[in-house]
Amino acid sequence: MRAEVHQVADGTYLVHGNNVNWVILKDGDDLTLIDTGYPGDRPGILESLAAVGGSPEAVSAVLITHAHNDHLGSAEYLRSTYGTPVYLHPAEVPHARRDFLHQATLGDVVRNVWRPGMLPWAAHVIKVGGMEHNPVTAPEPFPAAGALDLPGRPVPVHTPGHTDGHCVYHLPGAGIVVSGDALVSGHAVSWTKGPQLLPGFFDHDRDRVVASLDLIAGLDGDTLLPGHGPVHRGAMRAAAEQARDRATRGSGTKKAR
Hints:
Metallo-beta-lactamase, Chain A, disordered C terminus
């Protein structure tokens, strides 16, 4: 599968990989890469950088929303090969090193095998390296508070729950929120379209996921770039409220810890 690159604003690109997205921010010749897909998405990462007129050498930093393998896939490759710093929330740094692992287990998948698309999704995850041991050797916490001095001037916003250190990235000037897995618009195992939470078994702490919707709702923006699903246009408050309503009416169960 080739990566699909969609320009959503000046210097901002949403890229669809293998059932997961990443975002490229471009300022002149310099790039910021937010998330890096599965390990098997590496050709797509490189293709997408070239498609926007860039290269791995032009990536000033990799920002990670959270350290699951479908978002962390090529972070260590870029760090070790090109010296690209990999930044995360301080609470997510040890997760990226694999000091511990907060993600759905094989048992969680088996208990949710009734969901539409679960078996093809699980087979796909294995194929693209989703179950590999894939740490970042030297991840770093954000170098400063507030807007980062990187292309796009992204502002990390701590939205814990999916993992303890999950962050979304706000682009205030463009009215864009890069939401990772805190708020998505679709998933291979969901029959729902539009703003939603992932099925609950994917989350480390479902209650905190729901609470973090308040933080997203308070961000000024009308374009959501999720970790899964297509771009969503509309106010952040309305998107967060729609996801909360859907979760309240019948989302997946809280993940066992």
